[in-house]
Amino acid sequence: MRTRSAVKKLPPQYAVVVSLIAMSSSLLQNLQFGVIEIGSFVGVFLLGVLFLQTFNYYNMFPDDGWVNKTLVRSEVIPSFFPD
Predict the structure, then answer these.
(1) Averaged confidence pLDDT in the chain
(2) Does the global pTM surpass 0.85?
(3) Handedness of CA 62, 65, 66, 67 (dihedral sign)
(4) Cα(60)–Cα(4) distance, integer angstroms
(5) Can you give the pLDDT at residue 35?
């Protein structure tokens, strides 16, 4: 009994194009993971800068009013709960 193949045999000149497309999708996927990793490191670094600035503010200006302290605190708290 003869079975039909869903994929037709490509001419040899198209084999190179198909292999390049397969390689580029793999490369693109690896590139996306690298971009995500770099973005995560930058985000964590900036979060650390935010905490350091907040810590320094509370140590340097302990006599500030509750309004200023609330404004500073309102910048730190949303960083834990992104949209």
Answers:
(1) 78
(2) no
(3) negative
(4) 78
(5) 82
